[in-house]
Design a protein that fits this description.
single chain; alpha/beta; TIM Barrel; 8-stranded parallel β-barrel; 3-stranded antiparallel sheet
Length: 488
């Protein structure tokens, strides 16, 4: 038996982005409207809003988690600022940006396809210009020997499907999603190896993300069932088109520790962790776990299935688990315990951890704990496809000194190495989030920056879009060159 002393030789170092936060090119090249095109900007503790038009023609807005009125459709108010419309303009800067990724030494790059760029309505109409854009991006990556990692659907849905079908409430959207997959699997069968069906599937719950008007839990779980079926069908289809495809799922993983060793606190942590384990159990094991079926029973939820849905889910299990890790949280049975915020969740504050400016707990050891627990539970290869530190960066004489970000990454990479070398975890790669500055998903800000590369744009969309290398750019380049050995 050989002992791994560090990261595997073929370890995939890279970075990650999402079309709706990075790509821009709003309606360029035949792109259709997406739900996220109707989401305004926000700020820390100031929620982003969905703008919509009622049946009587009047205009309204709700927060992202609220339901839309019956018959309401997404609406773009030309007097409002919508961050996704320009984002940080990868659409017009992809060659420049990929060259910067190559300079850092990226082995891979995780990006998402905007569904409405490939199919403007999300139906069986195909926009060849949109497909050609992604082919040009993939070819540019391959020119530098950078492996494309494709997220098929990342937090958006064509607005037409939301307006006409109530999004993932409808089984018809399963067919349209599988059609999209067939198009891209065949188009890129010899250029892309790694795919993920849905981004952070445990966070898919609002009109902005899945196009459903209702905010009722029953409606959300029914839509999620349709997403499970669509993912499983995509896995089977992809393997039939190219058996060498590696098709994974993606979950937002935020481990919950018990506040104390009181059994009540421990069980609160069990319940909170099940909220994310549930989606992995379905996609990795191929069936709904008993604890979730019992929860449906207690809540009076009935998931409507067609006859072969369970068989489809069983046959369409994934090849690997991709997950985001930014923070851990705490579960408590005491309703008066101090609350904490972070990454679209509300839980309790861990007194042993520091937090970022946005209230996210900083817990490098939690990444090792997550890797070990996930690998022990599922015995599937793992891929850390998001991890990073949102902070306010200052430009000083054309330079950005972000030692705080370097410190964050160093500690997390050390724990990944420990998980590989000491715990025996099979880890495919690491793609830190927002490797170049992107619009924040949670707040719609530019002030909250993650990247190794600075983009000159402010919270209102003003700026030159000039790219600048941060200190972390040069640091990460050394990390990759040394395959994770040089973290200084």
């Amino acid at each position: 038996m050989t002992t791994t002393k560090g990261f595997p030789k073929n370890f995939l170092w890279g970075g990650a982005t999402a079309a709706n936060q990075y790509e821009g090119g709003y309606l360029s090249g035949g792109k259709g409207l997406s739900t996220l095109d109707a989401i305004t900007g926000g700020a820390y503790k100031v929620p982003r809003k969905v703008t919509f038009k009622r049946q009587d023609g009047s205009i309204g807005e709700v927060t992202r988690e609220e339901s839309l009125p019956d018959g309401a459709v997404g609406y773009i108010d030309e007097n409002r600022y919508y961050p996704s419309h320009a984002a940080t303009d990868f659409y017009h800067h992809y060659k420049e940006d990929i060259a910067l990724f190559a300079e850092m030494g990226f082995k891979c790059f995780r990006l998402s396809f905007a569904w409405s760029r490939i199919s403007p309505k999300g139906t069986d109409e195909i926009n060849e210009e949109g497909l050609q854009f992604y082919e040009s991006v993939i070819d540019e990556l391959l020119k530098y020997s950078i492996e494309p990692i494709i997220t098929i659907n990342h937090f958006d849905i064509p607005m037409y499907l939301a307006d006409q079908y109530d999004g993932w409430s409808s089984r018809k959207v399963i067919d349209y999603y599988v059609f999209l997959c067939e198009v891209i699997f065949k188009r890129f069968k010899n250029k892309v190896k790694y795919w993920m069906t849905f981004n952070e599937i445990n966070f898919l719950r609002s009109w902005a993300q899945i196009g459903i008007r209702s905010s009722e839990p029953q409606s959300k779980f029914q839509a999620l069932h349709h997403i499970f079926v669509a993912s499983a069908k995509a896995v089977q289809l992809g393997h039939s088109i190219n058996p060498k495809f590696k098709i994974g799922m993606m979950v937002a993983y935020i481990p919950a520790y018990p506040m104390s060793c009181r059994p009540e606190d421990v069980y609160e942590a069990v319940k909170r962790n099940r909220q994310q384990e549930f989606v992995m159990d379905v996609q990795c094991r191929g069936y709904y776990p008993n604890y979730q079926l019992k929860e449906f029973e207690r809540q009076g939820f009935e998931i409507v299935k067609e006859g072969d849905d369970d068989a489809i889910i069983a046959a369409g299990t994934v090849d690997y688990i991709g997950f985001s890790y930014y923070m851990s949280t705490v579960a408590s049975s005491d309703p008066n315990a101090e609350r904490s915020e972070g990454n679209q969740v509300l839980a309790y504050k861990n007194p042993y951890l520091n937090t970022s400016e946005w209230g996210w707990a900083i817990d490098p050891l939690g990444l090792r704990i997550s890797l070990s627990q996930l690998y022990d539970r599922y015995h599937l290869p793992l891929f850390v496809v998001e991890n990073g530190f949102g902070a306010v960066d200052k430009v000083e004489d054309g330079e950005i000194h972000d030692d705080y970000r370097i410190s964050y990454f160093k500690a997390h990479i050390e724990e990944m190495r420990n998980a590989i070398t000491e715990d025996g975890v099979d880890l495919i790669g690491y793609t830190p989030w927002g490797c170049i500055d992107v619009v924040s998903s949670g707040t719609g800000e530019m002030k909250k920056r993650y990247g190794f590369i600075y983009v000159d744009m402010d919270d209102k969309g003003n700026g030159s879009l000039k790219r600048l290398r941060k200190d972390s750019f040069y640091w990460y380049k050394k990390v990759i060159e040394s395959n994770g050995e040089n973290l200084e």
